[in-house]
Write a structure and sequence with these properties.
By secondary structure, this protein is mainly alpha-helical. The chain has one domain. It is 64% helix and 0% strand. The protein contains 6 helices and no strands. 26% of the residues are buried.
């Protein structure tokens, strides 16, 4: 329950709600369109990362670090409950941003980062649910076969 309330508090504090995100002041490369991310990341995959891509990737890293710091400070002081715990790799973050941008080329990099925050919050909620309802010494019930 503590983690659930913490995640709700974080969502309200970090702009994970549409109304807040529309009023958020976004600086730097967070204002770039996902279409730019797609173009610049394609060159990076070919071994030549442009300064634009490096700047955009650094912006994402800084944004997520800021959200993580806010989460750690205000919502979940237990290091095990941090939003960007060690299970999320930098490569996975860049891939998830790329996936979002491919599906939403007209969105901003800020929106992509915000969507990733929500995705990671959901991951923590699922983990908390499983830990609470299915302790490590028990397994979730088997799913019944689908009869059609």
């Amino acid at each position: 329950m503590k983690l659930s309330l913490s995640i709700v508090a974080l969502a309200l504090l970090t702009g994970a709600t549409g109304a807040h995100a529309q009023r958020a002041l976004v600086m730097g490369d967070g204002n770039e369109l996902c279409a730019t991310w797609i173009k610049e990341s394609a060159s990076a995959r070919n071994g030549v990362a442009s300064t634009k891509y490096i700047g955009m990737a650094a912006w994402v890293s800084g944004y997520l670090s800021g959200v993580n710091s806010t989460y750690a400070t205000l919502a979940a002081p237990d290091p095990e409950d941090l939003l960007l715990e060690s299970r999320v790799t930098p490569q996975e973050i860049l891939e998830k941003i790329g996936d979002y941008c491919a599906a939403n080329p007209g969105a901003t990099l800020f929106r992509a980062g915000d969507a990733l925050v929500v995705s990671l919050q959901n991951r923590l909620l699922r983990r908390e649910f499983l830990q609470r309802h299915y302790p490590r010494d028990t397994a979730p019930p088997a799913r019944a076969p689908n009869k059609r």
